Amino acid sequence: MDTSLQAPTQSAVDRFLRYVRIDTQSREDQSAVPSTSSQWALANLLATELRQLGAADVRVSDHCMVRASIPGNVSGGAAVPVIGFIAHVDTSPAVTGANVNPVIHRNYQGGDIALPGDPAQVITVAQHPILGDLIGDDIITTDGTTLLGSDDKSGIAAIMTMVDVLARNPLIVHGTIAVAFTADEEIGVGIEQFDVADFGAEFAYTVDGGMLGEISDETWSARLATITFLGKSTHPGTAKGVMVNSIHAFADFLSRMPRDMLPETTEGRVGFVHPYSGVADVEESSVKILLRDFEMSGLESQERLLRDLASATERTFPGVTVRVDVKENYKNMKEVLKDHPQLMDNAFEAARRAGLTPFTTPIRGGTDGSKLTFRGLPCPNIFTGGHNFHGKLEFNSRRGLEKTTETLVHLVQIFAERAGE
Ligand SMILES: [Zn+2]
Q: What secondary structure letter does DSSP report for 8?
């Protein structure tokens, strides 16, 4: 942090260490939001702390969404847009988040990091070359028995510390800032309960990314295809010439899928098709397939391919009807964000002022921001310094948390500076 500034009342690291000890794991297949009542504990704590830090209009919704507003202090006429910062309180259903026991490896000097609670859990230099950049840093891991919850308590800690720094340093000039902490991000349902109008921001950033400096304005465009194979069931003892077994058509269809366009054979900007779940029965079989690409034209050609393969299978199996149903899931937020280049420009400048080298990589997934962007709140994603999300080897570091915080403090100032230009 800039040494001319008053330090926050609590450091980003100390906040982080408190928040990760609160179990906020979300759970799939629950009808209610939040999916787990434990998320309330952190949401209510954050609301209390926001009030203590002088935030205005602090509320927790019936769906466990925290929102608050930090009044701007810009004098004169320049209209600064209201900027939002969003992070999520829940952790992944994939690995337990109960009894998280964070371990600080102070002044890391290189080498593999064995986690004390489970000898099988080792963060190796071979698999994590990023460790080479963390020499001298304090690395924060789990004890090997849980996930850490850096995703996304790092984002929460950075946003809260930013609010703290702004409260302690009234000379930092910024517009009005909206803050939100959401529930059930990991299971993809919480954001439906997010009230964009009530949030009141013109633009926002999710603080939910990885490596320091990584800022993203691209996500997949996504569709879901359901291929259904309709056959004819009959008693197998008297099936000759009557039974049409849809399972053979199902298998034929899958065997036609090109091997070079699957999640396990693609990376970077290359899209994929991913059969991930299915049912096989004589009368009716079906398979669900994810279609993912950064370009709409790529999605179109994936869909065309699946329809062509379905027709080929249908021709091979007379009597089987193959139905292809395709649904839109979400779209690449770049389609909207390309019209708001200042969001990436300002975030890049903020990262540079924090001494980082900003870069962008497309996200091979969706974010809450991609949904919000199409609901009228353009919303790129900013790094948190965290690594290995959703697993026991998850880690972040003191520098990761501090540089993320510093970037956010610079970012609100840049919006104020540039408002008059
Ligand atoms: Zn996350």
A: P
Q: Is the pLDDT of residue 421 over 80?
A: no
The CA 7 to ligand 1 mean position distance, Å, reads 27
Backbone angles phi, psi at 222, to 5 degrees: -135, 135
Convert the pLDDT of each residue in 343-400 to its tens digit: 999 999 999 999 999 999 999 988 889 899 999 999 999 999 999 999 999 999 999 9
Task: Compute the radius of gyration of the chain from its Cα atoms.
Answer: 24
Task: Give the helix/strand (H/E) hosting 133.
Answer: none
Q: What is the residue-wise DSSP string for 185-214?
A: TTTT-GGGG--HHHH--SEEEEE---STTB
The single-letter DSSP state of residue 324 is E
| Rounded distance between C-alpha atoms, residue 390 and residue 397, angstroms | 17
Residue count of the chain, please give it: 421
Catalytic residue positions, numbered: 90, 185
Q: How far is the CA of 186 from the centre of ligand 1 (A)?
A: 7
Rounded CA gap, 24 and 100, in Å?
11
pLDDT per residue as tens digits for the range 160-203: 999 999 999 999 999 999 999 999 999 988 899 999 999 999 99
What's the CA-to-centroid distance between 248 and ligand 1, angstroms? 40
From CA 14, how far away is CA 402, in angstroms rounded? Answer: 11
185 Cα: distance to centroid of ligand 1 (angstroms): 7
Contacts of 170 (CB under 8 A, 6+ apart): 73
Count CB neighbours of 35 within 10 A: 23
